[in-house]
Amino acid sequence: MIKRTPMVAGNWKMNGSRSLVESFSDTLNTHSFKEVDVVVCPPSGYLSFFVAETFDTGGQDLSAQDNGAHTGDMSGTMLTELGARYVIVGHSERRENHGESNELVADKALKALDNKLVPIICVGESLSIREQNKVNDFVGAQLAAVFDVLTTEQVSKCVIAYEPIWAIGTGKTASPEQAQEVHAFIRETLAGKEKSLAEKTRVLYGGSVKPDNAAQLFAQPDIDGGLIGGASLKTEDFIAICQAAI
Ligand SMILES: O=C(CO)COP(=O)(O)O
């Protein structure tokens, strides 16, 4: 049985400030996170202001292209040069607000790997999909698109994040049982490709994770940590969530 190191990643979305980056770095660096991998994903313009000693940084998106006439986009190489080790791909806000398809998300994951970045691939359903009892079909299709582009070996280098859209920023967390059910499905899907892939791959939960619900969620057998939005902007809350993952 392979032991997976838990992971907590903060997604600042389009929030924060230079002074928050500085105070965040100072406080986080006084903690040693030995048994949990801690990642902060700020808006990319802030990446180089981080002094990250006890944690890593990541981008929130990258282009599927290497360079060229793509105004406003950021390449994997650029993120790497700014010190990022991870990058979120396929967040539901990008899928919805920027029309990103399952196929484009898979291409972005591949581009991240090409640039030695660890992709955190987000999947998750809307409330209407859940109400139609189609969660597994929907999440299964999102994962299938990844397997169309990435080899099993490449998927083993990724992190998956299950983020039900109805739980993002709503204060409506999935219950530990609801989250575990989908995490188990994701792990079965990975096992369908290769047993060791399911054992190795970290699957995070995201959606209204707070210090008071994190421990219960992270205690589920198939939940390896969290992708945190709002609470990742409050240093003490974020640290408490990181500690709940150990
Ligand atoms: O979207 C999320 C992280 O990527 C979750 O956001 P909240 O934690 O604010 O619900």
From TrEMBL:
GO terms for biological process: gluconeogenesis; glyceraldehyde-3-phosphate biosynthetic process; glycerol catabolic process; glycolytic process. The keyword Metal-binding does not apply. It comes from the Bacteria. Its EC number is 5.3.1.1. Pathway: Carbohydrate metabolism; erythritol degradation; Carbohydrate biosynthesis; gluconeogenesis; Carbohydrate degradation; glycolysis; D-glyceraldehyde 3-phosphate from glycerone phosphate: step 1/1. The keyword Transmembrane does not apply. It catalyses: D-glyceraldehyde 3-phosphate = dihydroxyacetone phosphate. One of its GO terms (cellular component) is cytosol. Pfam families: TIM. Its main location: cytoplasm. It is found in: Cytoplasm. Belongs to the triosephosphate isomerase family. Involved in the gluconeogenesis. Catalyzes stereospecifically the conversion of dihydroxyacetone phosphate (DHAP) to D-glyceraldehyde-3-phosphate (G3P). Homodimer. This is Triosephosphate isomerase. The gene is tpiA.
